[in-house]
């Protein structure tokens, strides 16, 4: 087993190194400006594997001619895998042209100056340590949420822009004969070791398995009896079931549905949750549905021009980059969905927009989460008004509001105590840092469905890992401005609104308010 600590230096200024094991952190990669001189050098120094993280992208400073295919200089090339073809080691590559993918191979002997492409994806530090630090090179990253996640922010200079140069420091995690504790051996420890594998009984040593290792087993190997060696840290809900030394039955592996939700707050300190569909709390839907009563023509093609009568579902406030007097400028915008006949189109409205809106007040009834998700299309906002009495502490009831963002399917293990196998829990595979030792195969009849599901509060790092989120706030889809039609009288607009609201799939009409251009509210 191997662990990684990151040695971080402030970049570009040199300073004394600060060694930290980052538990949290989201960052973007700064492209390495030092070229690789051949494809073979790339395969030696860069991790290339079957997952998305193992598909690095490069461009060559010169044209590459491959039979009938020419790769022009500067074109983005994705390296997918390494394999042997007719006795020659090659790299399977791909390029995208006009939304069409083209595959080809490059021999390892291919020479040229290959530069790393710009990468806008957000990564966790764990992903960077495992996949994105080339051998014999450092990795410069720019963090996106320094103040939220770093406990050592006071050690950084005031003008720190978020860039760090990272160098991995590896350690070996070892187990000793007839012992169950784990020993951490640093890579710079000056010791001599001798390989005694051939003359040792491997069964005398602890065989540690992670939740991922268990999940990779075939379905026929379940159920299993295991002893918890390292239990989860910080999850009080599971502490009594999964503490070290506890013997458990792992009944089966499964896929389960969760609703990814975020707390509605004006600042950036949002909490994130994974809510099981079996959640019994009652919620009120809070989707803001408005109709424009005044036209607005946007001076920026990146933003939407509004016509009288346009209907919108308001999502969230964010920032967007626009072109102003031939210079790029970041402004505050409101992300919305325009309601069309049979579809919804994402648009951005500037916060400085002087317009009037009619709000359609939706049904204020109380519903369970499963009922709301069947009735309405995600995302939408809710307020938990009645907590779930089946769980000890319902953290959702204390939130000012929630945005239910999307429905995800995730991997779980069905686990129960060995002495009470009927009382079972769904345990997340990829968010629970826990190790076990297998004891035997459970021979008794096992259960097929959980009696408990977990309401998870996840970290911001886990939120990005679950959602594979790419920040699109600074790159809104361009939309040419349209000329608004002649404004309609208010009376005719409200008459037409009654019909349009009844035809809108998400609207359950109760009443409406008129919002003036500067925030005045008039009750109708």
- Cα shape: globular
Helix content: 10-25%
Low-confidence stretches: 10-24, 469-495, 497-524
Tally of DSSP β-strands: 33
Kindly report how far apart the N and C termini lie.
Answer: 67 Å
- Provide the gyration radius in Å: 28 Å
**Protein structure class:** mainly beta
Major pleated sheet: 11 strands, antiparallel
Figure out the total of helices.
8
Q: Overview of this structure, please?
A:
It is a single chain. This protein is mainly beta. Among the domains are: 1-31 and 121-197, no CATH class; 288-361 and 474-523, no CATH class. The chain has 8 helices and 33 strands. Strands 16, 17, 18, 19, 20, 26, 27, 28, 29, 30 and 31 form an 11-stranded antiparallel β-sheet that branches. Strands 1, 2, 3, 12, 13, 14 and 15 form a 7-stranded antiparallel β-sheet that branches. The chain has a 7-stranded antiparallel β-sheet with strand order 24-23-22-21-25-32-33, with no helix packed on it. Strand 22 and strand 23 form a beta hairpin. The longest helix is centred in the C-terminal third of the chain and has 14 residues, at 490-503. It is globular and about 85 Å long. The termini are far apart. Mean pLDDT is 77; it is low at 10-24, 469-495 and 497-524.
